[in-house]
Amino acid sequence: MDKIQQVIKDEEKYILGTYVRPPIVLDHGRGCYLYDTGGKRYLDMVSGIAVNALGYGDKNLIRAIARQSEKLIHCSNLYYTAPHVELAKQLVTSSFADKVFFCNSGAEAVEGAMKIARRWAQKNTGGERAGFVAFTGSFHGRTFGALALTDRKKYRMPFEPLVPGARFARFGDAGDAEAKIGVDTCAVIVEPVQGEGGVNQADTQFLHDLADVCRRRDVLLIFDEVQCGLGRTGKLFAYEHSGVKPDLLTLAKPLAGGLPMGAVLVNEKAASAIEKGDHATTFGGGLVVSAAAIEVFRKLKKKSFLKAVQARGEYLLQRLEELAGQFPSLIVAIRGLGLLAGVELTVDAGPLVGSFRERGVLVCVAGPRVIRAVPPLVISNEQIDFFINVFTKVLGEAEQDGGQET
Asked: Would you say 99 and 266 are in contact if contact means Cβ atoms under 8 Å apart?
């Protein structure tokens, strides 16, 4: 039995089976490429699900992790340490926020935002408000609170009852959101660009109207930028495209360069409700992840870096539009912002992922019929061209196989 089969067999024996994985074992990465144990190279258009913004092997990031690891890895949040304070300072001075809470993942960030919103409502509305309004197509995480705000029945139903009090409004419809806000609502949560839901960008007017609704109805506005934040859309934060400033904003994925880290950015209005002991985490804002995040954030916030992401994002969408012209019977729509792109198809996207992989490209889906591209933000136009060439071959094969709308 070769090494690949041994790893797969051992995983099936020892690891709880929550993922369906392809029959490859990834070993190392360089730049925008991943390599399996057999030495095959793959252009990575997944980047750890929008995590590895700087690609693989960034020397400054590796040095930052190594330097802090040599000094101190962990001492808990019972004591003052410098790295997470420096990171918080950078996040606050670069955003709308006044305070930051650090945690370990996007789902934890959403849970933290939910707790902050409920605490705010308890202190400011007599404690009668504990519910939330989310939107169709949303994805906010897999924990009980975050899942309650996620519009995926197949994810939700096996684990109900979830956290009660969630209602779903039509994405893009501020009027429907207002209709769903009840006397029990403490906050509205929305993704400026839905990732898992199919790469759907929220309209600027919708976000402005939604902010007006929240102010008028005295509920908090939460932006979930776990996937679309931190440079992915060509701006440091996705809210900057609309100019709408939320009360709370959740971050995670690329923040610590592949190490687990999440954050909740909070304005003073919401932050004022939190008292010491209201929320906590053992590992959140740890020294090593904070040191990594400082280096990542230093690069992501550079105007030259963001300008390059914008340019490459425009090029990617341009090439995808050209592809749509070649395959009108297979491509329904091209959606995206920056280097977050979705291609909606008339056929199931899942089976095509393997065809990409066989040709040396890793992609993922965003719903049953959307191919999603979330490459490292350092991808080149030449690598985008390679992706498009492979996409052309994959769709050509699908067309020959009789791919049509069903």
From this structure: yes
